[in-house]
Description:
By secondary structure, this protein is an alpha+beta fold.
Amino acid sequence: MSAPAVSIRNLSHAFGALTVLHELSLDIEPGEYLVLLGPSGSGKTTLLSILGGFLQPTKGEVLIDGRDCTRMPPAKRPTTTVFQDYALFPHMSVGANVAFGLRMNGVAKAERARQARETLALVGLEQALDKKPHQLSGGQRQRVALARALVMKPRLLLLDEPLGALDLGLRRQMQEELKAIQKRVGTAFVHVTHDQEEAMALADVLLVMQDGRIVDQGDPERVYTRPSTRFSATFMGENTLIDAQVTGVSGTTATLQTALGTFALDRQGVRSGKATLTIRPENIRLGATPPDHVSLGSGEVVESVFQGSYRKVAVRAASGQHIVLKLPVDVPARIGERVEMHAAPHHIGLLQE
C-alpha cells in the first residue's frame, strides 16, 4: 500500500478560549477525493485553512508526503486552494489568470502560456484563453479558478465550497465535471461543503464533522446507509430512528427488543444494552417479510402524512406505543391498516454510542 499523501496528527485549534478542532488524526491517500461535510461551525473550513497554510494549528502536525508542513506558509507548500468567490483578477485575461502562479514562480513566458493552454483544455475552456473573467458565466469562472490551481501541479488541491455560488442545475453539472477532472489528473482533492447530495456525488471518502470532531468517516454509501453516529444518521438526510435494547449476543448475532417486536441482526462488535436502529426511508418495506429481509415488527397505522421526498407514518404497536417511521412516498400506508415492516439487513444501521 502506498504512503499517505497527507497525514494529520493530533490536530487541535483554538480561537482564544474557544476550541474549534479537537485532536483530529486523518490520512488522505494519493488520488483520493475527500469531502468534509458538516454544518456551520463544525470546523471543516478551519481544517481546510490549516491544510492550506492559512492558519497554524494550536497543536498537532500536518505531513505532506512525509514532510512536516505544519508551519510552512501557503506559497511554499505543495497545495493550492479554490475559493467560493473564485478570486480571479478582473483586469487579466483568462490565460494570464491561469498562468499567474507560474509567473510568480519564475516560469518563462512561453512555457507558462503552454501550460495555461493545456490546463484550460483540461477543464474545457481552451477557447476562453484571451477572454476576461467578466465575459464568462459563473460555471466557466469556477473552471478557470480550478485550472489556475491545477496548473501548479499541487500534491493536494483544496476546494472551499467551490460550487456554493452556482444555481442548482449548474451545481449538478459541475459536480460531474469536478469528479471527472480529479480522476484524470490523479491529484488528491479535499472539498468542503454543507450540501449532503454534493458530498455523496463527489466523495471517495466522506468525513462528517460536528463541533470540531470527526463523527463519521467512510465511503458515502456506508455513511449514508449505516451511519456510525446519531448525528450523521440525521444530518445525512431523513432517517427512521428506532430505540432498541440488545438483550443477548451469540457470536455475531444480536437479539434486539423494540417497541415493534423482537428480532435478530447479524453484526460484529455488538454489546448488550441500549441501541438505536437507523433505516433510510427508501429502505423500509411493508408486507410479508421475504426470507432475505429482517422483520421490524408490526403495528396499526394511526397517521400518514405526505412529506414530498418521503411519507411520515406513525404506527401504534401492540404495547400502545407510537413509533414514527419515514417510508418511501409510493408506499400506500392507510390509517387504520395493520402493517408489518421489514428491511434488508445491510440497510439497517445499529448505533451504540
